[in-house]
C-alpha cells in the first residue's frame, strides 16, 4: 500500500516507520519550505511495543518528504494525525486533494466528528486512534508505540472495504486492533482523560511529579469524574469504564492508575519521553482544559475543580 503521512510529527513518524517496516511505501507531506529544515533522515531512539515489553530501536531512518500534493496522486491511504486544534485547517487543505485515497483520522478529537470531516467524502473516511507518543529533539525521535491501536465508527464514516483494509493494514504490521462500537463517544472520553491528566500535571509541576504523587493522580480521577457529564450533555455515552470510574472509590482508582503510570511499562516510558522532549508545552497541555471548561460554561455545567485550576492553564 502507498501511504502518505500528513506532516512529520511524532505519531506520523512512529507509525510511518512501522508501516514501512511492514513493507509499505511511506512518504510524508510537509508544508512548502519545511523539507530543507527537517532533513531527509530521522534518528530513531524508540521502543517498539509490538515486540516483547518494548524492543529498543536505535537507528537512522531515511524518509521521503514532499511539499506538493494534488488530487492526481496515487496514494491509497492518507494518515491525518495532528493536534485537535489543527484539524479544521488540515481537513480543508485535503478536501480538494484527497483523490481516491482513504483518509485515516488518527488522533484526539473534541469536536463533532461528522462536522470535522464534512468537507471530505464520507465513504473515504476511517477513524482510528494511536497507542504511541514521544517527541522530537532536533531530528532525533524519542518515544514508542504500544501494540494496541483503536478503531471504530462514527456517524457516516466508512464501515466497509476501506475500513477493513486499514484494519488489516495495521494487523499485518503487528498491531492489535481494539474496536470500539461508539467511537465518537470513545474519542470524547479519551479527550477528557487527557485533559484531566494534563491539567493535574500542570498543577503538580510536571508529569513526573504527577505520577510520583498518589494524591495528585487521585485528583486527576476526581477531575475526570467531574468532566464526564459533559459527554452526555453533548449527546454521547460514557460507557461501562466511566460508569465504574464513578462508582469505585477515587482513592482506589488513583492507586491503580498511579501504579500503571509510574510502573516500568511502555505507557510510563512514553509519558517520560513526551515530557523529556518538551513535546507537550504548557500552551498545548492547557488547551485541552480550556476547551472543556469553555463548553461546560456554555451548556451551564458546573466544574468547580477544573474552574479552581484555571490559573494553571489559562492563557
TrEMBL record:
Superkingdom, natural source: Bacteria
Record domain Ketopantoate reductase N-terminal: where: 4-128
Pfam hit, one: ApbA
Name of the protein described by the UniProt record: 2-dehydropantoate 2-reductase N-terminal domain-containing protein
Natural source organism: Kribbella yunnanensis
Lineage: Bacteria, Bacillati, Actinomycetota, Actinomycetes, Propionibacteriales
Amino acid at each position: 500500500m502507498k501511504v502518505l503521512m500528513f506532516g512529520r510529527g511524532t505519531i506520523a513518524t512512529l507509525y510511518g516507520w512501522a508501516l514501512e517496516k511492514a513493507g509499505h511505501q511511506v512518504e510524508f507531506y510537509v508544508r512548502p519550505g519545511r523539507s530543507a529544515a527537517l532533513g531527509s533522515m530521522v534518528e530513531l531512539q524508540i521502543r517498539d511495543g509490538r515486540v516483547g515489553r518494548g524492543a529498543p530501536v536505535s537507528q537512522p531512518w531515511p524518509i521521503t518528504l514532499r511539499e506538493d500534493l494534488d488530487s492526481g496522486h496515487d496514494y491509497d491511504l492518507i494518515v491525518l494525525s495532528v493536534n485537535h486544534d489543527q484539524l479544521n485547517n488540515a481537513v480543508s487543505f485535503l478536501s480538494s486533494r484527497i483523490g481516491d485515497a482513504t483518509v485515516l483520522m488518527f488522533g484526539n478529537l473534541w469536536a463533532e466528528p461528522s462536522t470535522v470531516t464534512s468537507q471530505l467524502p464520507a465513504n473515504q473516511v476511517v477513524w482510528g486512534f494511536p497507542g504511541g507518543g514521544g517527541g522530537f529533539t532536533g531530528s532525533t525521535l524519542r518515544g514508542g508505540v504500544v501494540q494496541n491501536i483503536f478503531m471504530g465508527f462514527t456517524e457516516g464514516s466508512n464501515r466497509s472495504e476501506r475500513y477493513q483494509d486499514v484494519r488489516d493494514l495495521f494487523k499485518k504490521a503487528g498491531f492489535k486492533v481494539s474496536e470500539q462500537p461508539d467511537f465518537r463517544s470513545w474519542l470524547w472520553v479519551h479527550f477528557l482523560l487527557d485533559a484531566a491528566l494534563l491539567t493535574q500535571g500542570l498543577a503538580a509541576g510536571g508529569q513526573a511529579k504527577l505520577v510520583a504523587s498518589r494524591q495528585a493522580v487521585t485528583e486527576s480521577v476526581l477531575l475526570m469524574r467531574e468532566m464526564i457529564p459533559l459527554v452526555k450533555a453533548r449527546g454521547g455515552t460514557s460507557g461501562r469504564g466511566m460508569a465504574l470510574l464513578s462508582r469505585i472509590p477515587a482513592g482506589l482508582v488513583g492507586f491503580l492508575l498511579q501504579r500503571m503510570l509510574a510502573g516500568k511499562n511502555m505507557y510510563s516510558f512514553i509519558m517520560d519521553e513526551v515530557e523529556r522532549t518538551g513535546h507537550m508545552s504548557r500552551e498545548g497541555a492547557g488547551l485541552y482544559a480550556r476547551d472543556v471548561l469553555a463548553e461546560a460554561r456554555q451548556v451551564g455545567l458546573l466544574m468547580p475543580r477544573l474552574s479552581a485550576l484555571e490559573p494553571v492553564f489559562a492563557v
